[in-house]
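ok new one. same drill as before - structure tokens go in, u give me an amino acid for every spot. 223 of them this time. try not to just spam alanines like last time pls lmao
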């Protein structure tokens, strides 16, 4: 843990686990990475740990760095931020702008979630990745991580007052506001427009992205 921690001022190791396949051992270290997306700093840390193991354990023949889990949906290796966006839309607003009733939206969402689940999907949304991809591109995030981030769960109900309550849960949103592409002038400018540039802003950026995704889901459901 100390070797990993020494590799970056932002990275904090929090847990170590081990998996076994035959005579191979997979050493997994969970990190927090502050407001950085953190993939590269985690890889550097693992490289140092791997080198230490290989140099100090004579039974190790090969050391592979890192295990290639990034940028693909691996259910047992989820990472990123979990964020939930929720809103309430009055019936008259939904009917005027969306030309649909709250009850019709709830019925539609329930039916399509059932069909998606029946066919094996764990990402129960309409087109959540559309808005997510736009935000990634606008704010200098790594577009290739959309394969991991695009899991989204939409839920809705009609409230006693007749309004539509709708929410989206993004369990694996991998974003950062320091490092990577965020330091390029164009992306520094766009992040600054929404007060999300620099340290201490990654959670806010995740919330903004979730709100955009939710808006898109309401629009798609109404359409």
């Amino acid at each position: 843990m100390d070797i990993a921690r020494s590799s970056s001022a932002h990275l904090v190791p929090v847990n170590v686990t081990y998996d076994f396949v035959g005579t191979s051992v997979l050493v997994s270290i969970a990190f927090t990475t502050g407001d950085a997306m953190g993939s590269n700093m985690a890889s550097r840390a693992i490289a140092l740990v791997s080198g230490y193991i290989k140099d100090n354990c004579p039974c190790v023949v090969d050391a592979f760095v890192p295990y290639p889990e990034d940028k693909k949906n691996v259910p047992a290796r989820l990472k990123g931020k979990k964020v939930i966006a929720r809103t309430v839309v009055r019936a008259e607003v939904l009917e005027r702008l969306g030309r649909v009733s709250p009850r019709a939206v709830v019925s539609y969402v329930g039916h399509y979630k059932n069909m998606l689940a029946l066919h094996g999907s764990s990402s129960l949304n309409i087109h959540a990745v559309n808005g997510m991809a736009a935000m990634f591109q606008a704010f200098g995030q790594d577009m290739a991580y959309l394969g991991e981030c695009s899991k989204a769960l939409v839920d809705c109900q009609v409230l006693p007052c007749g309004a539509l309550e709708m929410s989206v849960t993004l369990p694996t949103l991998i974003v950062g506001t320091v490092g990577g592409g965020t330091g390029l002038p164009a992306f520094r400018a766009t992040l600054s427009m929404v007060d999300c540039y620099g340290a201490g802003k990654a959670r806010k950026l995740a919330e903004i992205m979730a709100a955009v995704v939710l808006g898109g889901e309401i629009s798609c459901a109404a359409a």
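DSSP finds eight helices and five strands in the chain. and btw The mean pLDDT is 92.
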